């Protein structure tokens, strides 16, 4: 704590990477605090994985710098950086047992055999795989391989753990379990986690903070709650969660003002009016999507003009299980929401279909 | 109504019949053409030739094998052939590894294809042409000796020339399985090794080579067995040296002693069987 200021765990400054004429990463600056669970979220090709690979040292940045705990590592090879990676395809060594895989990092660093054994056993304990130490990776299930990869990285006690879509290959149920487990492990070991994912739900569930990537740049860095409730761009609003985004005349007709405006489906009430100050519109149910715990209603909003009506997606929890409670297709409904739930977004260059038809 | 679908579904309903139809032509070929000829070879080895009439006498005996064992020349030739096969295999492995590694892990897709063609190209040219090209290389006034002359070296026809030429001829058979083996190693596995603190050399020693052993053995089966059976290269660049193949050729044609030639031909067969049995333990045969 000298100087009263602590260096961040990772500091990226104007990081850029080009592959030929393609700018995969285009000026990314970022600070990740020590012990933070930080996610990089974005669609495929948005540059998030390239940033991760530059932190690990697998790619050389075209420009910019990378600092780990205050020291520049921009030019260091991967083996000289105090970070470890959990790969998307796990990248386990097929010719080694689970225990040998976990010991590998200690072995190449010439750690004594007894200590190596003990630390590997401890790491396998952390991921609850002690009973499979003698198996080969090919004899394990996807979830087990995932845990071995985690143990193999954690055993080195790195300053930062990088995770490249580590849960992408698992089925949904297992993924949910691993998410909870991952969060728990991160809390236990207290290491900075940098987690790359394209799954916004996963990012919201796990992270302390999230950076949303688009087209090689960061759109917004914020906590999950902030990101969901106050998206700073239409890209973030659309990518994180479901948004009803309207612009131009459609926005004026529905929300009563111009601009790019958005409201989350669960903030819209179907039928009832929650508050005398609520805004209301009427519309026709076009589609009902049954989701089990909830229904999505796609509603065509009644417009003063003819032509394509703007649509709003409304989510409604299925408190009751009787079908007659549900609005049906073609039914006239009233929609209501509180004005504070309408999110104003900076105008974007992306034109929406509604703008064109109006 | 019942009959039509019954007839049409015969193959569908009898998977064994389907399998039989699929496999009978190759099995016939393998059984008749391949195994029978091998069996004839083996049987002939246990017969003898009458030295006066040069007729084959169909009397079972072990005379041929006894001669093989007792006459020094054949032992020398066998050991020499084995040595050449081992050296050719080692030289090929050492040259093939960096080429295969570059092709599989470093080169771009485009270069990969170019290199693959470059590796395969010598296989399209005639064996004899390539052997004679090397004969020209090793000749007293050839390019090799022209290059070696300033440092006071001379490389004429002989065993070294034989090893070099054979290593050149069989190199693609070593590169291809190694390339295929390396292709199957994901880049991420190499990155993981570096990520865990291993430098390049350590990664090759602890990760790449252990994974590559089966492919290396698969390649060595080619280089080894092809060398054991070769008799032309040694004639062209080997000076007066002989390999097993030459002895077989001479016994059969010059000596007109087919049974003894057959017995001699069993030597590389036995060596290969022993080698294959040893290699099988490494799991290399799963990689062929």
From TrEMBL, chain A:
Q: Name one GO cellular component term.
A: ATP-binding cassette (ABC) transporter complex
Q: Which PANTHER family match?
A: SPERMIDINE/PUTRESCINE IMPORT ATP-BINDING PROTEIN POTA, SPERMIDINE_PUTRESCINE IMPORT ATP-BINDING PROTEIN POTA
Protein name per its UniProtKB record? ABC transporter ATP-binding protein
What are the alphabetically sorted keywords of the record?
ATP-binding, Nucleotide-binding, Transport
**Which is an annotated GO molecular function term of this record?**
ATP binding
Q: Does the keyword Nucleotide-binding apply?
A: yes
Look up keyword ATP-binding and say if it applies.
Answer: yes
| Cross-referenced SMART domains | AAA
Q: Which residues form the ABC transporter domain?
A: 10-240
Q: Which SUPFAM superfamilies match?
A: MOP-like, P-loop containing nucleoside triphosphate hydrolases
């Amino acid at each position: 704590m000298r100087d009263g200021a602590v260096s961040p765990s990772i500091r990226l400054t104007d990081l850029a990477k080009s592959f030929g004429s393609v700018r995969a990463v285009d000026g990314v600056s970022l600070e990740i605090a020590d012990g933070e669970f930080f996610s990089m979220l974005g669609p495929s090709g948005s540059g998030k994985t390239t940033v991760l690979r530059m932190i690990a040292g697998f790619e050389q940045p075209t420009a910019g710098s990378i600092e780990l705990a205050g020291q520049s590592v921009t030019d260091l090879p991967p083996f000289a950086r105090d970070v470890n990676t959990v790969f998307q395809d796990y990248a386990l060594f097929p010719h080694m047992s689970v225990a040998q895989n976990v010991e590998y990092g200690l072995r190449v660093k010439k750690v004594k055999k007894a200590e190596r054994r003990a630390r590997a056993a401890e790491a396998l304990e952390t991921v609850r795989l002690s009973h499979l130490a003698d198996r080969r990776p090919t004899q394990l299930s996807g979830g087990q391989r995932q845990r071995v990869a985690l143990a193999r990285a954690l055993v080195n006690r790195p300053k930062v753990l990088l995770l490249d879509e580590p849960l992408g290959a698992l089925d949904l149920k297992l993924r949910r379990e691993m998410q909870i487990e991952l969060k728990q492990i991160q809390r236990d070991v207290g290491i900075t986690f940098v987690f790359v994912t394209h799954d916004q739900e996963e990012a919201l569930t796990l992270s302390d903070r999230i950076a949303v990537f688009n087209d090689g740049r960061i759109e917004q860095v914020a906590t999950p709650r902030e990101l969901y409730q106050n998206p700073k761009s239409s890209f973030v609003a659309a990518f994180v969660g479901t948004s009803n985004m309207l612009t131009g005349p459609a926005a004026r007709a529905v929300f009563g003002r111009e601009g790019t405006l958005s409201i989350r489906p669960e903030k819209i009430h179907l039928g009832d009016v929650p508050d005398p100050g609520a805004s209301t519109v009427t519309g026709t149910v076009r589609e009902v999507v049954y989701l089990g715990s909830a229904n999505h209603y796609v509603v065509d909003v009644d417009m003063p003009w003819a032509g394509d009506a703007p649509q709003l997606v409304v989510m409604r929890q299925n408190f009751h299980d009787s079908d007659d409670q549900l609005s049906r297709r073609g039914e006239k409904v009233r929609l209501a929401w509180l004005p504070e739930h309408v999110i104003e977004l900076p105008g974007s260059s992306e034109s929406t279909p509604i703008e064109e038809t109006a | 109504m019942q009959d039509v679908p019954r007839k049409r579904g015969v193959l569908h309903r009898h998977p064994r019949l389907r399998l039989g139809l699929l496999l009978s032509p190759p099995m016939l070929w393998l059984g008749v053409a391949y195994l029978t000829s091998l069996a004839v070879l083996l049987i002939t080895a246990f017969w003898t030739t009458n030295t006066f009439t040069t007729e084959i006498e169909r009397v079972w005996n072990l005379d041929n094998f006894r001669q093989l064992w007792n006459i020094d020349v054949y032992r020398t030739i066998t050991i020499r052939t084995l040595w050449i096969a081992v050296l050719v295999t080692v030289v090929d492995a050492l040259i093939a590894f960096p080429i295969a590694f570059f092709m599989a892990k470093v080169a771009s897709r485009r270069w990969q294809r170019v290199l693959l063609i470059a590796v395969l190209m010598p296989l399209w040219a005639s064996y004899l042409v390539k052997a004679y090209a090397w004969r020209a290389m090793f000749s007293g006034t050839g390019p090799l000796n022209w290059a070696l002359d300033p440092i006071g070296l001379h490389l004429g026809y002989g065993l070294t020339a034989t090893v070099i030429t054979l290593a050149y001829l069989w190199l693609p058979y070593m590169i291809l399985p190694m390339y295929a083996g390396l292709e199957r190693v994901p880049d991420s596995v190499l990155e993981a090794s570096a990520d865990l603190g291993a430098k390049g050399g350590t990664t090759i020693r602890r990760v790449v080579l252990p994974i590559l052993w089966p492919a290396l053995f698969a390649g060595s089966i080619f280089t080894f067995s092809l060398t054991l059976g070769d008799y032309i290269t040694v004639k062209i660049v080997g000076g007066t040296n002989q390999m097993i193949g030459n002895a077989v050729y001479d016994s059969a044609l010059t000596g007109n002693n087919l049974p003894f030639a057959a017995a001699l031909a069993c030597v590389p067969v036995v060596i290969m069987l022993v080698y294959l049995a040893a290699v099988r333990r490494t799991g290399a045969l799963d990689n062929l």
